[in-house]
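Lab notebook: predicted structure, single chain.

Context: the supervisor wants predicted structures on file for every construct in the current expression panel, including those that have not yet been purified. This is the next one on the list. No modifications to the sequence; it matches the entry in the shared construct table.
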Amino acid sequence: MKAMYLVPVLLAFALAGCGQQSDEKAASQPESPPPAPSEAASPAETAVVVALKDGEQVYREVCQACHGAGVANAPKAGEPGGWTALLAEGQAVVTAHGWVGVRGMPAKGGRPDLSLEDFARATAWMARSAGGDWQDPDEAMLSAIREEEAKRIEEMKAKAAQG
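Prediction complete. Output recorded below exactly as produced.
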Protein backbone atom coordinates (compact mmCIF):
# COMPACT_ATOMS: atom_id res chain seq x y z
CA MET A 1 0.00 0.00 0.00
CA LYS A 2 2.85 2.42 0.85
CA ALA A 3 4.36 1.72 -2.58
CA MET A 4 1.26 3.23 -4.21
CA TYR A 5 2.02 6.56 -2.50
CA LEU A 6 5.61 6.46 -3.74
CA VAL A 7 4.64 6.19 -7.42
CA PRO A 8 3.32 9.76 -7.77
CA VAL A 9 6.28 11.16 -5.83
CA LEU A 10 8.82 9.32 -7.98
CA LEU A 11 6.98 10.34 -11.12
CA ALA A 12 7.05 13.99 -10.04
CA PHE A 13 10.84 13.83 -9.47
CA ALA A 14 11.39 12.15 -12.83
CA LEU A 15 9.32 14.74 -14.69
CA ALA A 16 10.92 17.66 -12.87
CA GLY A 17 14.14 17.03 -14.77
CA CYS A 18 12.51 16.85 -18.20
CA GLY A 19 13.85 19.33 -20.69
CA GLN A 20 16.78 20.37 -18.51
CA GLN A 21 20.36 19.75 -19.55
CA SER A 22 22.76 18.32 -17.06
CA ASP A 23 25.27 20.80 -15.61
CA GLU A 24 28.16 19.09 -17.46
CA LYS A 25 26.33 19.24 -20.78
CA ALA A 26 25.33 22.88 -20.28
CA ALA A 27 28.90 23.85 -19.32
CA SER A 28 30.37 22.19 -22.42
CA GLN A 29 28.09 24.09 -24.82
CA PRO A 30 29.07 27.69 -25.49
CA GLU A 31 26.46 30.37 -24.98
CA SER A 32 25.06 31.90 -28.14
CA PRO A 33 26.17 35.49 -28.52
CA PRO A 34 23.44 38.10 -28.90
CA PRO A 35 22.57 38.84 -32.52
CA ALA A 36 24.58 41.53 -34.25
CA PRO A 37 22.68 44.76 -34.88
CA SER A 38 22.31 43.87 -38.55
CA GLU A 39 20.77 40.53 -37.58
CA ALA A 40 18.35 41.97 -35.01
CA ALA A 41 14.71 42.02 -36.03
CA SER A 42 13.33 45.33 -37.21
CA PRO A 43 10.24 46.80 -35.51
CA ALA A 44 8.19 45.78 -38.55
CA GLU A 45 9.37 42.20 -38.20
CA THR A 46 8.58 42.07 -34.50
CA ALA A 47 5.18 43.78 -34.71
CA VAL A 48 2.29 41.63 -33.66
CA VAL A 49 0.32 40.59 -36.70
CA VAL A 50 -3.40 40.16 -36.16
CA ALA A 51 -4.80 37.68 -38.62
CA LEU A 52 -8.09 38.74 -40.08
CA LYS A 53 -10.73 36.09 -40.47
CA ASP A 54 -12.77 35.81 -43.61
CA GLY A 55 -16.40 36.82 -43.37
CA GLU A 56 -17.78 33.31 -43.57
CA GLN A 57 -15.55 32.16 -40.71
CA VAL A 58 -16.72 35.04 -38.50
CA TYR A 59 -20.32 34.34 -39.53
CA ARG A 60 -19.99 30.69 -38.45
CA GLU A 61 -18.34 31.60 -35.13
CA VAL A 62 -20.45 34.61 -34.14
CA CYS A 63 -23.48 35.27 -36.35
CA GLN A 64 -24.88 31.91 -37.41
CA ALA A 65 -26.78 31.23 -34.19
CA CYS A 66 -29.18 34.09 -34.95
CA HIS A 67 -28.72 34.81 -38.67
CA GLY A 68 -28.88 31.14 -39.59
CA ALA A 69 -32.26 30.61 -37.95
CA GLY A 70 -33.73 34.12 -38.17
CA VAL A 71 -33.90 34.59 -34.39
CA ALA A 72 -35.84 37.74 -33.45
CA ASN A 73 -36.41 38.43 -37.16
CA ALA A 74 -32.69 38.61 -37.91
CA PRO A 75 -32.19 38.55 -41.68
CA LYS A 76 -31.09 35.05 -42.61
CA ALA A 77 -27.86 34.53 -44.46
CA GLY A 78 -28.51 33.23 -47.96
CA GLU A 79 -32.10 34.50 -48.12
CA PRO A 80 -32.51 37.62 -50.28
CA GLY A 81 -35.93 38.57 -48.88
CA GLY A 82 -34.66 39.62 -45.47
CA TRP A 83 -31.77 41.54 -46.94
CA THR A 84 -33.51 43.55 -49.69
CA ALA A 85 -34.24 46.62 -47.55
CA LEU A 86 -30.89 46.37 -45.79
CA LEU A 87 -28.97 46.23 -49.06
CA ALA A 88 -30.77 49.41 -50.11
CA GLU A 89 -29.65 51.17 -46.89
CA GLY A 90 -26.03 50.59 -47.81
CA GLN A 91 -23.06 48.73 -46.43
CA ALA A 92 -21.72 51.44 -44.11
CA VAL A 93 -25.12 52.13 -42.51
CA VAL A 94 -26.13 48.51 -41.99
CA THR A 95 -22.70 47.52 -40.68
CA ALA A 96 -22.51 50.49 -38.28
CA HIS A 97 -26.02 49.89 -36.94
CA GLY A 98 -25.28 46.22 -36.35
CA TRP A 99 -21.94 47.09 -34.76
CA VAL A 100 -23.56 49.30 -32.10
CA GLY A 101 -26.64 47.08 -31.78
CA VAL A 102 -29.93 47.32 -33.56
CA ARG A 103 -33.40 45.95 -32.80
CA GLY A 104 -32.81 42.63 -31.00
CA MET A 105 -29.16 42.37 -32.01
CA PRO A 106 -26.57 43.08 -29.33
CA ALA A 107 -23.62 45.35 -30.09
CA LYS A 108 -20.76 43.55 -31.86
CA GLY A 109 -23.00 40.54 -32.28
CA GLY A 110 -22.59 39.88 -28.58
CA ARG A 111 -18.82 39.39 -28.87
CA PRO A 112 -17.00 42.28 -27.14
CA ASP A 113 -13.62 41.07 -28.45
CA LEU A 114 -14.70 41.13 -32.11
CA SER A 115 -12.91 43.71 -34.25
CA LEU A 116 -14.86 46.13 -36.43
CA GLU A 117 -13.10 44.80 -39.52
CA ASP A 118 -14.00 41.17 -38.76
CA PHE A 119 -17.59 42.23 -38.00
CA ALA A 120 -17.73 44.16 -41.28
CA ARG A 121 -16.35 41.17 -43.20
CA ALA A 122 -19.07 38.94 -41.75
CA THR A 123 -21.76 41.49 -42.61
CA ALA A 124 -20.45 41.76 -46.18
CA TRP A 125 -20.37 37.96 -46.47
CA MET A 126 -23.99 37.67 -45.32
CA ALA A 127 -25.04 40.37 -47.79
CA ARG A 128 -23.24 38.55 -50.62
CA SER A 129 -24.84 35.26 -49.59
CA ALA A 130 -28.22 36.95 -50.05
CA GLY A 131 -27.40 38.33 -53.49
CA GLY A 132 -25.76 41.64 -52.58
CA ASP A 133 -22.45 42.79 -54.04
CA TRP A 134 -20.84 44.13 -50.86
CA GLN A 135 -17.09 43.64 -50.75
CA ASP A 136 -14.89 43.09 -47.72
CA PRO A 137 -14.21 46.53 -46.27
CA ASP A 138 -11.18 48.52 -47.32
CA GLU A 139 -9.91 51.54 -45.37
CA ALA A 140 -12.38 53.90 -47.07
CA MET A 141 -15.34 51.66 -46.17
CA LEU A 142 -14.11 51.23 -42.59
CA SER A 143 -13.90 55.01 -42.31
CA ALA A 144 -17.47 55.36 -43.62
CA ILE A 145 -18.63 52.71 -41.13
CA ARG A 146 -16.97 54.58 -38.26
CA GLU A 147 -18.69 57.82 -39.34
CA GLU A 148 -22.06 56.04 -39.42
CA GLU A 149 -21.27 54.48 -36.05
CA ALA A 150 -20.73 57.94 -34.53
CA LYS A 151 -24.03 59.18 -36.02
CA ARG A 152 -25.89 56.15 -34.74
CA ILE A 153 -24.49 56.54 -31.23
CA GLU A 154 -25.58 60.19 -31.17
CA GLU A 155 -29.07 59.17 -32.35
CA MET A 156 -29.27 56.55 -29.61
CA LYS A 157 -28.15 59.06 -26.96
CA ALA A 158 -30.72 61.61 -28.12
CA LYS A 159 -33.46 58.98 -28.07
CA ALA A 160 -32.46 57.84 -24.58
CA ALA A 161 -32.46 61.45 -23.33
CA GLN A 162 -36.04 61.88 -24.56
CA GLY A 163 -37.11 59.05 -22.36
